Amino acid sequence: MDTIPNICNRALLPENSPWTCPSDHVFYDGSVVWGLIGPRRIFGDLGTYTAINWFFLFGAIAPLLVWMAHKAFPNQHWISLVHMPILLGATANIPPATAVNYTSWIICGFLSGFVVYRYRHNWWQRHNYVLSAALDSGLAFMGVMLYVFLELENVSLEWWGNNLDGCRLATCPTAKDILVEGCPVY
Fold this sequence. Notes:
peptide transport, about 190 residues, mainly alpha, membrane, single chain, oligopeptide transmembrane transporter activity
């Protein structure tokens, strides 16, 4: 990582560079929100995002709702498969992850953990661990191969998966009277 000049500095990197370090930027943004600006001006009575606080209540109540649904419908086995702490905890990865990540996780997880488990249980017992290892290994192998064959040759591919959120205004400031080129002024 030390051999890449200006790594994680979006302003100094070449256009379409993959070295943007999204997790670091999310951590930095969180540090600014909680340390510099203060939570009251973001999530408190002075802020724009006060409604988000209701999700703390939802996070506390959601496991109880699943438990009550399981008690109310004991014959519905699928309700016991819903694990709210995992579902809600996975949302911590949303800022650096894209919708492509989540849809592929949901599809693979549903097919392997529900369809194959239910209808081909013996196959699932023998091969699910191998499937998991194959997916992990394939991801690592393709990461290395893409780097070797594309990045070292300075090849840049433009496709729908490159556009992380599709909204160029997502990086624009929303405070009043701040001028940034290409962004609207509020």
